[in-house]
Amino acid sequence: MSLTTPDTIRTLQRKLYAKAKQEPAYRFYALYDKISREDILSHAWRLVRSNRGSPGIDGVSFEAIETGIGVETFLQDLARDPKDKTYRAQPVRRVMIPKADGSQRPLGIPTLRDRVAQMAVKLVIEPIFEADFCEHSYGFRPKKSAHDAVDDIANALWAGYTQVIDADLSKYFDSIPHAKLLAVVAERIVDGGILHLIKQWLKAPVIGEDDNGVKKTVGAGKANRQGTPQGGVISPLLANCYLHILDRLWQRRHLKGKLSAHLVRYADDFVVMCRKDVEKPLKVVRYVLERLDLSLNEAKTHIVDATQASFNFLGFAIQMSRGAKTGKPYPNVRPADKSLTKIKARLTELTGRNLTPIPLSGVAGTVNRSLRGWANYFHYRNSSQAMNKVRYHAEDRLRIHLMKRHKVKDRGTGFRLFPSAHLYRRHGLYKIPTRAGWNPAHALA
């Protein structure tokens, strides 16, 4: 299934982007009919399908659609609703995702029908907002990545911005006020149909379960005045639109120069890198957030001198270090301790004693998928030590698993029977790369 954007859609997106870029005050009004186009809905389906998400509150899965009415009929029915103006957003299913600190994060899962509709709208309106978004915003944007954000921070450290406001927003996705968010969207889009759809998705009732598994409404529909569910296809774009106000103020008022403070934002995670004073930049951040009806999580917001200590951003620990041989300072970017703990715990779980009845190829396959996913993200910049630790842990856990299968109790015997070469050659264990995963020309240390 090709995820390449069809030329017809790409042409539309380029025209919308160019118009928005050339006329920053222009407001778009003739967009609603675009979301019912066959090419847009078909591509929206492919994108949503590739994410392999869970069913929504109606229990309808991708497989049920494909083996039931069929994708073509499903999309034809979906196209008819916007045309007839009979589209109604369905309730959102809430699930709670455990966090590392023991708390839980609410995740809102719209139905597949609503997710495809949201993706269709996103395909049309995203280029308009992309024309406005600032360079220092990296989260959930085309051709931008978490690594780009980390590189920006490293470059700022090189330039002397070592006093860091490590900010944490308090329940951002749950706190965005609908009225102000819609007003921000309406600065660029005045198409009533599009605005009505977005409002429906924001106001959709959220259905969760109590401790006994009984479904209950936890979001009150029309009475719900804030929040956009994490898990909704369009939520990251809307969240970026709202915090763009902070980005825009920083850029238009030249605060990087005036306050000697550089902002780097990835969705609701951001840091302010300061050369000297942190009080004035922090005061500006608090002021803007207050106007947006948002707040900092004071317990998790810290001021860090990056020459003395590290701070965590997007799973990495970042600080200025000195080379062991040269003594020269350099930005040290490595996987954070929490990231290491998490992957090790996952590998331990995937090789537990309770899995010995499962075919060994299945155990190795799940281990390899986790290792590849982790390495693809964290094999970056100064990651060599962490990569070695994960490689050794993976070897150790698979070896222990084999010992349990073969009832080998002595560790020395286990090493002789299942040496590292045996794990890779015979059982196909994925070999974590241990050399630094970045351009060595950057290393002056």
Automatic annotation (TrEMBL):
It comes from Accumulibacter regalis. Belongs to the bacterial reverse transcriptase family. The lineage of its organism: Bacteria, Pseudomonadati, Pseudomonadota, Betaproteobacteria, Candidatus Accumulibacter. Residues 78-318 form the Reverse transcriptase domain. It holds the Pfam family GIIM. The gene is ltrA_1. This is Group II intron-encoded protein LtrA.
